[in-house]
Amino acid sequence: MLMDDLNKLAMTADAARFEATGESPLCGGFIRDTRRTSGYTPSELRDRFSRRGISNHIEVNGRKIPIQNAVMPGGRRIPLLKAMLTTACERDCHYCGFRAGRDERRITFKPEGMAKTYHNIFQAGLLDGLFLSSGVFAGGPNTQNHMLDVAEILRVKLGYRGYLHLKIMPGAERDQIMRAMQLADRISINLEAPNPDRLSCLAPAKKFTDELLQPLGWIEEIRRSTPAYRGWGGRWPSSTTQFVVGPAGESDLEILSTVSKLHQTHGLGRAFFEAFTPVQGTPLENHPAENPLREHRLYQASFLLRDYQFDLEDLPFTHEGRLPISTDPKLAYARNTLAETPIEVNLADRTELLRVPGIGPRGADVILRSRQHGRIRYLSDLRKIGIMAERAAPYITLDGHRVPQQLRLF
Ligand code: SF4
């Protein structure tokens, strides 16, 4: 019996849940308190990661379709469908459940069927966005053409104005990337590994520089050289990438060096990390799963690089290039650096304030504004303007004085 397109969509939505779209299962995209993240029991951690990506279901004509509440640039959350044009793939990446030759039922859409089925659900008000990915068939450029067809049908034929995230296939051509940027709100290319050597352990058929890094470079080159009015909605889409963490033996330093460089040179909007989980019937099926907390620490460190003006050298790497697993990297930095030389809140510039645990980008701005109206003398002054004063206390001075650290009773 032929499956109808709605059934197929439900099945690909379930299969595509490992494509990251917005957050770590632990942190929701924001740096959180160390006690919170290290306080999960092993079974809680397993549970949160086994439900990775799936935060909800919608019901359409009696069929349950998994969806995700994805975090948009700017922090807004929307109900998003992650779907694959096909779950068949001619590549053989060692970690991937869709790899060629694996005994698995495959689902393939025609572009028209995918576009119309999704659009019907969107029009019913059940979804606000689509994240479209695919296995590779008859080459990356050919697959990309089919994905562009879906986007064209949605935007041009059906007049779709909702959120669209398009995955760029390995080996996609510059013109295809330009077209994707004219149709999508966000595009992404998964590097999977921080450099060619590590990628060869995970996906020997993928060419790191030619197939993955170069297309990421074209995105930024187009953004810089072509007026933004030619992009979707009059602006160019943001770009992201994703790394598989663990089985290639890479260090956190290797991953974050690449992320830092991509932020500076490729205009990367965000990096996603996926702690490796072995999939049966793949060459890495017996490789141990990566500790999910490592993924979480990488997210925290990447936000420090992107939003907190930290440099790579500021991060508390061990000699092996790993971040401490049991402590959030900002707290580890503060213990190493600020405990003996605290920051004076009334004199510090924004970069210095951002080094202090409990003070984020918004908090730093509030402190700078507040200082225009008078000096900050007490922890209670910080609390009043929304700073997590107890977290900051060991690493600051107020008016030249160390802050007495007392437990708050109320
Ligand atoms: S190209 Fe993508 S879908 Fe295909 S095996 Fe590799 S990771 Fe999986």
Overview of this protein structure:
The chain is 38% helix and 14% strand. With 410 residues, it is of the alpha/beta class. It has an 8-stranded mixed sheet with strand order 1-2-3-4-5-6-7-8. The structure holds iron/sulfur cluster (SF4).
Report the C-alpha radius of gyration, rounded: 23 Å
CATH homologous superfamily designation of the largest domain? Aldolase class I
Describe the biggest sheet? 8 strands, mixed
CATH fold name of the largest domain? TIM Barrel
CATH class of the largest domain: Alpha Beta
Q: Estimate what percentage of residues fall within beta strands.
A: 5-15%
Question: Total strand count, please?
Answer: 11
The CATH architecture name of the largest domain reads Alpha-Beta Barrel
Distance between the termini: 64 Å
Strand order of the largest sheet: 1-2-3-4-5-6-7-8
The ligands bound in this entry are:
iron/sulfur cluster
Based on Cα principal axes, name the global outline: globular
- How many helices in DSSP terms? 15
Give the mean pLDDT: 89
User: What's the number of domains?
Assistant: 2
Class inferred from helices and paired strands = alpha/beta
Low-pLDDT residue intervals, each spanning 5 or more residues: 22-40
**Strand/helix succession:** HHHEEEHEHEHEHHEHEHHEHHHHEE
Helix content: 25-40%
